[in-house]
Amino acid sequence: MQVSMTVNDVEVTEEIEGRTLLVHFLRDHLGLTGTHWGCDTSNCGTCVVWMDGEPVKSCTVLAAMAGGHAVRTVEGLAKGAELDPVQEGFIQCHGLQCGFCTPGMMMTARALLDRNPDPTDTEIREAISGQICRCTGYATIVRSVRWASVKEASVKQASVKQASVEEASEEVTA
Ligand code: FES
Ligand code: FES
After folding, report:
1. Which of 1, 9, 109, 114 has the highest Cβ tally under 10 A?
2. Domain final residue pick, 44, 76, 108
3. Which residue, of 76, 91, 124, is where some domain finishes?
4. Most ligand 2 atoms within 8 A of CB, residue of 101, 128, 138 to mutate
5. Which domain holds residue 160?
6. Same structural domain for residues 148 and 163?
7. Interval 4-57: pLDDT, tens
8. What's the domain count of the chain?
9. 84 and 61 in one domain?
């Protein structure tokens, strides 16, 4: 059967077997190996991607079910050469060791910050509670997400300040 969807803003159409899981479609058909496959039990969460902006475990979704939807993977997180603050946070706060869980963690973290820009540590832990990290003990992952939250708040504050300076100087010159 044929399936079409948008992946990281690009329209793709592929011939697949009906039983193909989204995680295998992304990795094996599209070569997007940033999405990892870590279990057969829907427990590890390393396969998390977004479908229409919502995090989903791509090992629990048939590629056919994603037909007509917009999928985003970790490869679509950065804007060109500019890393997403969540990616920066994982670098700054050592949110990874082996990195196997990291793509899924980052997709979940980005979705959390999009709906709750200032989450508590408990809310961060709740958001990633469906995902397993065998290396970090989670503390540095929580710290990484908090780093991204603080960075985004300061960028927002700086742009509001800049806008009010520009507004004030326009009033003076008017
Ligand atoms: S591969 Fe483990 S939950 Fe999807
Ligand atoms: S960094 Fe190794 S599993 Fe999370």
Report:
1. 109
2. 76
3. 76
4. 101
5. 79-174
6. yes
7. 999 999 999 999 999 999 999 999 999 999 999 999 899 999 999 999 999 999
8. 2
9. no
Asked if pLDDT for residue 164 goes beyond 90, the answer is: no
Residue type, 116: N
Distance 149 CA to ligand 2 centre (A): 21
Is 21 in the same domain as 44?
Answer: yes
Ligand 2 pocket: which of 135, 138, 143, 144 to mutate (most atoms <8 Å of CB)? 135
Q: What pLDDT does residue 168 have? A: 79
User: In whole angstroms, what is the distance from residue 103 CA to residue 34 CA?
Assistant: 6
- Please check whether residues 84 and 147 belong to one and the same domain: yes
